[in-house]
């Protein structure tokens, strides 16, 4: 039986850009590549969530993200913590809503309970790096 866990964040004001947040998360220890490949929602994905994985130069990835933002498409990218195999999918659902889907080798405390503090300690510094104002956040786990 699978477990679904996410941290959903609502901002009090518009996020400047998803690239700024991704860059801030990278500066705080996250990375966007796994074995040299990037996992992302491609340009033209109309809420199909047809994730792609490929080698892509960072400049080309950021150009695609800018295009997605200008077309009002959802931006999605997988990120990984430092030199571990733990990661998550980050979805920019709107200008004020971000979902962190804790899907990649999810950290647990015991009996499949997600170690939400582990994630918050690593996500929040990245959020503060872009000077955002949190309106609220919610952790959800389904068994």
Would you summarize the structure shown here?
The chain has 143 residues and is α+β, with helices and mostly antiparallel strands. 25% of the residues lie in helices and 34% in strands.
Structural account:
This protein has 143 residues and is of the alpha+beta class. The chain has one domain. 25% of the residues lie in helices and 34% in strands. It has 3 helices and 8 strands. The chain has helices at 18-27, 58-70, 116-128; strands at residues 4-11, 30-31, 38-40, 52-54, 75-81, 87-94, 97-104, 134-142. The strands form 2 sheets. It has a 6-stranded antiparallel β-sheet. A two-stranded antiparallel ribbon has the order 3-4. A hairpin with a 2-residue loop joins β6 (87-94) and β7. α1 crosses α3. The termini are close together. The mean pLDDT is 95.
Tell me the layout of helices and strands:
Blueprint: E1 4-11, H1 18-27, E2 30-31, E3 38-40, E4 52-54, H2 58-70, E5 75-81, E6 87-94, E7 97-104, H3 116-128, E8 134-142
Antiparallel strand pairs: 1-7, 1-8, 2-5, 3-4, 5-6, 6-7
Helix pairs in contact: 1-3
The N- to C-terminal Cα distance equals: 7 Å
Query: What coarse outline follows from CA principal-axis ratios?
Result: globular
Query: Could you give a short account of the major beta sheet?
Result: 6 strands, antiparallel
Order of helices and strands: EHEEEHEEEHE
* Average pLDDT number: 95
Taken as a percent bin, the fraction of beta residues is 25-35%
How many domains make up the coordinates?
1
How many whole angstroms does the radius of gyration measure? 15 Å
Number of helices: 3
In helices, the fraction of residues equals 25-40%
User: Helices and strands: which structural class?
Assistant: alpha+beta
């Amino acid at each position: 039986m699978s477990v679904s866990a996410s941290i959903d964040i609502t901002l009090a004001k518009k996020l400047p850009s998803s690239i700024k947040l991704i860059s801030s998360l990278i500066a705080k220890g996250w990375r966007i590549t796994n074995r040299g490949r990037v996992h992302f929602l491609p340009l033209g994905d109309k809420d199909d969530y047809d994730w792609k994985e490929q080698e892509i130069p960072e400049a080309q990835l950021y150009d695609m993200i800018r295009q997605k933002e200008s077309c009002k498409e959802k931006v999605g990218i997988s990120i990984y913590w430092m030199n571990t195999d733990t990661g998550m999918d980050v979805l920019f659902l709107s200008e004020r809503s971000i979902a962190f889907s804790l899907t990649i080798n999810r950290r647990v405390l015991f009996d499949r309970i997600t170690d939400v503090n582990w994630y918050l300690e690593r996500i929040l510094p990245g959020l503060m790096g872009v000077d955002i104002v949190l309106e609220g956040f919610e952790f959800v786990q389904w068994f």
